[in-house]
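Suppose you are handed only these lines of text.
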Amino acid sequence: MPEQSFSGLRLEGNLSTDPQEIAYAATDFGGIVSQIPLAVAQVSSAQDVTAVLTFAADHGLSVTPRGQGHSSMGQAQARSGIVLDLSDLNAVHDISDDRVVVDAGTTWAALLAATLQHGLTPRVLTDYLGTSVGGTLSVGGIGGTTHRYGVQTDNVLSLDVVTGDGVLRTCSPTESPDLFNAVLAGFGRCGVIVRATIPLIAAPARVRRIKVYYSTAAELRTQQRKLLGERRFDFLQGQILPSDAGWVHLLDVAAFYTSPAEPDDADLLDGIGFDAGRDKIEDLSYWEFATRLDETVTYLESTGEWRSPHPWPNLFLPDRTTDTFVDEIMHDLTHADLGASGLILTYPVPADVLATPLFRVPDAPTIFLVAALRFASSGPIAEQMVQSNRRWYDTAVNLGGTSYPVGAIPFAEGDWRNHLGEAHRPLAAAEARYDPRGVLNRRLKLAP
Ligand SMILES: Cc1cc2nc3c(=O)[nH]c(=O)nc-3n(C[C@H](O)[C@H](O)[C@H](O)COP(=O)(O)OP(=O)(O)OC[C@H]3O[C@@H](n4cnc5c(N)ncnc54)[C@H](O)[C@@H]3O)c2cc1C
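From them, the structure of the protein bound to flavin-adenine dinucleotide can be written out as follows.
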């Protein structure tokens, strides 16, 4: 095959075929698959994005947008195509009382730092803020306040998108809603998000965070269900963790406040089995709370686990089958099956707060996220974990569950078809309209 020349592609940013840049774009946080692109386009404007998409269409190449590359299994990679790196498109524009206009390559950490200067915050933050705005809006973006506000894609006022045909368009729930709904949680199939307008609310000054440990998963879920109904806490999560004494089950909840409206600890702790000798209550600034994973990241960097493979499966189960699913996967799970710092994140969300058509969740009034943060010490162990993830996925589907496809679960065309269900038809129509030459994320396109 003749070598592809990129001499006709002029960018304000940078187009690179440097082996180091190529190697970087062929990796992701998952560290499981590596697909080698022909070039990496480091874009600095919407015009750059148009230039790359037009060039790719004219030369029969596929383009994959990349935010921070924190996907687990190649979602932001482009085999023999162009990786469109948005990390330099990272300005925070207007911040007004109720919204912010932000470039898609901005990390949530940078966005929050900017909005907090105005005493404001996005409603929903992911646990880790090193992800990009465009990256999580292209997948969903779930966090501890999702039980109140939905996922991040449910909290977008409008988007500027360069569609696959190279045209810069604005879309919202009322302006080109077909595009809006095909881009949010659309994994970059129809267009590249270059800018988003996101609603803001008053940021709390302080956070009272409470951690309670239970000996069984059933106790944890019973408390989570009760608290979900009561709306006692602003933040609601939970974890299953390895310990020397076996698995422990952690309720992780928080109440947000700004003085003088301080929460009453007795009310917060009422009936949740808090044991002062075992459990923890702490008071943090909102920023300390939002960046609470930074310490863990520093620790994982020190042990090398931040760079090892991360076969993380993310699943959603209907409440009615969550107990069965968790019992089944925990039955013969060993600590080694999760790796040294592994854990399982699990928390409930009421389905009525979720409205993004492509964010596919079980048909149930309440769903549970069950996400395993697995750390593999080698490639073969990662492969075994990926196979185990696939078995978990099959079990989940039999129990009415779905995947959150940012994770490391092998997904064939048929899986995508099942996953998308009725949402496939409008997505396919949007792809045909906005990416008629099939440039974007070609490997995700389904046959009609
Ligand atoms: C430590 C850690 C913690 C995490 N915690 C959470 C969490 O709490 N909640 C949660 O929901 N997820 C979480 N995730 C998963 C994370 O949200 C996703 O992996 C997300 O995609 C990461 O954003 P990114 O910028 O790295 O996206 P990338 O991995 O770069 O891209 C993800 C997908 O979106 C597409 N894409 C990226 N940018 C654009 C764009 N501008 N326009 C169109 N398409 C685009 C890519 O092609 C790809 O398909 C976590 C991941 C890690 C590593």
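What can we learn from it? The chain is about 30% helix and 25% strand. The longest strand covers residues 191-202.
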